[in-house]
Amino acid sequence: MLSRPKPGESEVDLLRFQSQFLAAGAAPAVQLVKKGSRRGGDTNLDHPLLQDHRDVVTLDNLPDLPPALVPAPPKRARPSPGRPPPEHEDPEERLNRHDQHITAVLTKIVERDTSSVAVNLPVPSGVAFPPVFHRSQERQGKSATSGKRSIFAQEIAAKRVSEARVPPVREVVSTLDPLEGAASCEALTPREQGYQLPWGSHSFQGPNLVTGKGLRSQDAEQEAQTIHEENIAKLQAMAPEEILQEQQRLLAQLDPNLVAFLRSHSHVHEQAGEKATEEQRPGGPSVEVTGEEPTVPTSPSEPRQEDELEPEAPALAPPVTPHKEWLHMDTVELEKLQWTQDLPPLRRQQTQERMQARFSLQGELLAPDVDLPTHLGLHHHGEEAERAGYSLQELFHLTRSQVSQQRALALHVLAQVISRAQAGEFGDRLVGSVLRLLLDAGFLFLLRFSLDDRVDAVIAAAVRALQALLVAPGDEELLDSSFSWYHGALTFPLMPSQEDREDDEDEDEEAPAEKAKRKSPEEGNRPPSDLARHDIIKGLLATNLLPRLRYVLEVTCPAPSVVLDILAVLIRLARHSLESATRVLECPRLIETVVREFLPTSWSPMGVGPVLSLHKVPCATAMKLLRVLASAGRNIAARLLSSFDLRSRLCRFIAEAPQEMALPPEEAEMLSTEAFRLWAVAASYGQGSDLYRELYPVLMRALQAVPEELSTQPPQPLSVQRIASLLTLLTQLTLAASSTVPESSSDSAEASLSATPSLITWTQVSGLQPLVEPFLRQTLKLLPRSENWHALGPVPTACLLFLDAYYQAWSQQPSLCPGDWLQDMERLSEGLLLPLLHPPTLGSLWDSLRCCSPLCNPQFRVPAPEALPSLVSLGCTGGRPSLSLAGSASPFPFLTALLSLFNTLARIHKGLCGQLATILAAPGLQNYFLQCVAPMAAPQLTPFSAWALRHEYHLQYLALTLAQRAATVQPVLAVNAALHHSMVLALLSRVLPGSEYLAHELLLSCVFRLEFLPERASGGPEAADFSDRLSLGSGRDSACGRGALLVQACQDLPSIRSCYLTHCSLARASLLASQALYRGELRQIPALLLPVPKEPLLPTDWPFLPLIHLYHQASDTPSGLPPADTLPVSLEYYTEPPEDNLALLQLYFRVLVTGALCARWCPVLYAVAVAHVNSFIFSQDPKSSDEVKAARRSMLQKTWMLTNEGLRQHLLHYKLPNPALPEGFELYLQLPSLRQQYLQRLTSGMLQNGVSET
Question: In sequence order, what are the beta bridge partners of 366?
Answer without folding.
Answer: 358
